[in-house]
Structure formats: structure tokens, C-alpha cells
């Protein structure tokens, strides 16, 4: 998978993309990530990418010209499955969305800023808008990091144990069941016997029941959808 990220702050991605799962995916050649400094596409001598909104009002708006120039240049080189804009009023990111996008070959992610982008960008260039929650961030970079992590970790070959991602919360519309590791007895806090039994069928049944129980308690909205 190739991910092209358009941003005015590419340095924000340096640390989270240099460690752990994303680093491993890059080193294996499973994911190819490129950052594009939007200011490089500005024709303004000051490299501005924002301007005052027509009609007045507070805040600045990201201009269409540099965004269009960057996207057009990328599209001249390859076809893209999606051009995504990280926006608080986009569809809410969930596991189903991540699963779908993880199957794509090429995507562009545009990181918004200020009061947003010129509406014509959304009308003529963006194919999908995604939000990571019902709140506003200083910029779209943090949302893009979350989106990328949620996508990359489930691409086959990224995790050492590919079945691990399949048992994550939300994969089957349920929260993940409780997990334990050594020691089996810590200060009289004891691991459930069933997990030590070696009976795979009974363990799977226990995990499913506990997942239902946890979902019903913590996320009743999801529990109702799973019925």
C-alpha cells in the first residue's frame, strides 16, 4: 500500500512513524508512506496556503490552488482508490472503515487546518471525509496518524501474529475479552481456570461470552447492534 500525506507540518509524523508497527511495515516494504509539504505547491512568494474567507468572519481558509496542484501532480503518477480529507464532520472512523481502506493500493490523505479547506476542494477533489471523533483538533495531522495506524496494523504481514488483529475490539462488533499472562496467581488474584485448561473450544466459548458481557456493560450501543 502507498499512502501520500499532504500537510503543512510533515515533521509531526516523524516520531510516530519511526517506531513500532508502522516502522516494521515500512521496513518490510508492505507500506510506502510519502509526505508532501503543501507550501511547496504555493505560487505565493511567501509560500502562503491560506487566505481570508469570502464573506468575512473569523479564521483563515486553506486555498484550493496549492491543494489542487499537489493532488493533480500525484494523480498524474498513479491512480488512487481514495482521496481522504481528515475532517470533524466526516464519517466517524471505526473498524469497518479501517478494514475497508486497508485493502486499497493507493490513498491520499489531506490534513486540514485553520477553518478548513475551500469548499471546492471537498466538492471536486475529495472522495471521502473521515473524522476520528466528535471534537476539533488543531490540525488534521493527528487524525491522519490515527487513521494510518488503524489501517496499517491490519494489513497482512505487518503483525508477527496476524490472528492478533482479528481478535481486537470492534472486529466482530464486540469489545475484546479479558486477557491474562504469567503469573497465574498474583497476590491471590487468580487467572480463570478455563484459560489454563488447554481446552480450546471451551476457551473460545468463554472468550465470546466475556466479550458479550464486556460489550453489554461498557458499550451497550454496540451490544444492541450485535444482536
Describe this structure in words.
The chain is α/β, with parallel strands linked by helices. It folds into 2 domains: 2-152, Alpha/beta knot; 167-226, Trp Operon Repressor, Chain A (Orthogonal Bundle). The chain has 8 helices and 9 strands. The strands form 3 sheets. A 5-stranded parallel sheet has the order 2-1-6-5-7. Strands 3-4 form a two-stranded antiparallel ribbon. The protein has a two-stranded antiparallel sheet with strand order 8-9. The longest helix has 19 residues, at 200-218. The chain is elongated, with a radius of gyration of 22 Å.
- Side by side, the strands of the main sheet go 2-1-6-5-7
CATH architecture of the largest domain: 3-Layer(aba) Sandwich
**CATH topology call of the largest domain:** Alpha/beta knot
Shape call: elongated
The overall number of domains is: 2
- Secondary structure: helix percent: 25-40%
Which strand-content bin applies to the residues?
15-25%
* Overall number of strands: 9
Summarize the structure.
The protein is α/β, with parallel strands linked by helices and 227 residues long. It has helices at residues 20-27, 64-77, 95-101, 119-124, 141-152, 163-166, 200-218, 220-226, and strands spanning 2-7, 32-37, 50-51, 61-62, 82-92, 106-111, 128-131, 185-186, 189-190.
Question: What are its keywords?
Answer:
five-stranded parallel beta sheet, two-stranded antiparallel sheet, 2 domains, 227 residues, Trp Operon Repressor, Chain A, 9 strands, Alpha/beta knot, alpha/beta, single chain, 8 helices
Amino acid at each position: 500500500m502507498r499512502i501520500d500525506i499532504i500537510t503543512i507540518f510533515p515533521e509531526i509524523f516523524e516520531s510516530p512513524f519511526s517506531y513500532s508497527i508502522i516502522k516494521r511495515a515500512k521496513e518490510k516494504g508492505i507500506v510506502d508512506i510519502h509526505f508532501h509539504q503543501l507550501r511547496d505547491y504555493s505560487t505565493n512568494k511567501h509560500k502562503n496556503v491560506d487566505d481570508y474567507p469570502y464573506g468575512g468572519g473569523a479564521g483563515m481558509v486553506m486555498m484550493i490552488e496549492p491543494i489542487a496542484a499537489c493532488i493533480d501532480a500525484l494523480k498524474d503518477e498513479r491512480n488512487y482508490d481514495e482521496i481522504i480529507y481528515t475532517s470533524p464532520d466526516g464519517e466517524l472512523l471505526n473498524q469497518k472503515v479501517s478494514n475497508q481502506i486497508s485493502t486499497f493500493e493507493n490513498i491520499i490523505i489531506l490534513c486540514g487546518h485553520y477553518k478548513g479547506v475551500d469548499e471546492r476542494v471537498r466538492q471536486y477533489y475529495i472522495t471521502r471525509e473521515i473524522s476520528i471523533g466528535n471534537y476539533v483538533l488543531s490540525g488534521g495531522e493527528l487524525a491522519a496518524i490515527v487513521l494510518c495506524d488503524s489501517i496499517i496494523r491490519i494489513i497482512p504481514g505487518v503483525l508477527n501474529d496476524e490472528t492478533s488483529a482479528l481478535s481486537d475490539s470492534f472486529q466482530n462488533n464486540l469489545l475484546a475479552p479479558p486477557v491474562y499472562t504469567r503469573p497465574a496467581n498474583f497476590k491471590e488474584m487468580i487467572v480463570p481456570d478455563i484459560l489454563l485448561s488447554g481446552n480450546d473450544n471451551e476457551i473460545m466459548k468463554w472468550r465470546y461470552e466475556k466479550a458479550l458481557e464486556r460489550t453489554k456493560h461498557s458499550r451497550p450501543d454496540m451490544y444492541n447492534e450485535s444482536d
